[in-house]
């Protein structure tokens, strides 16, 4: 459904965004340390959650398990979060509307753990 829309809230239309565009945008936000501002702007506009499908969550669980844990690429607190993500798709941080949690703390590499790199 890339580029196609479906109805969200009465004043909001949900549009699927391609992975490359999403990743580039999140990387831009991370590179310019705009996370606090992004949260404020979203909250000001009434955005309290961003929909994420179960396939996407499973994909990131597999990614973390294989690329980070499987290759010993993280240590300390980040390794703990990686283990939690690999097991349940969650980490200590913001809880989604259906129970999935996503990391909001800084990793050993200094970037937000919830962003694509």
Structure description:
The chain has 117 residues and is mainly alpha-helical. The protein has one domain (5-103). It is built from 4 helices and 4 strands, in the order ββααααββ. The strands form 2 sheets. It has a two-stranded antiparallel ribbon with strand order 1-2. Strands 3-4 form a two-stranded antiparallel ribbon. α3 crosses α4. The longest helix has 16 residues, at 54-69. The model is unreliable at 1-7 and 99-117 (pLDDT under 50).
Concise structural overview:
This protein is mainly alpha-helical and 117 residues long. It has 4 helices and 4 strands, in the order ββααααββ. It is globular and about 45 Å long.
Question: How many helical stretches?
Answer: 4
Question: Percent range for helical residues?
Answer: 40-55%
Number of strands: 4
The proportion of strand residues reads: 5-15%
* pLDDT < 50 stretches: 1-7, 99-117
Element-by-element helix/strand order: EEHHHHEE
Largest sheet: spatial strand order: 1-2
List keywords for this structure.
117 residues; mainly alpha; 10% strand; single chain; 44% helix; two-stranded antiparallel sheet
Write the layout of secondary structure elements.
Layout: E1 5-7, E2 13-15, H1 19-31, H2 35-44, H3 54-69, H4 76-88, E3 93-95, E4 101-103
Antiparallel strand pairs: 1-2, 3-4
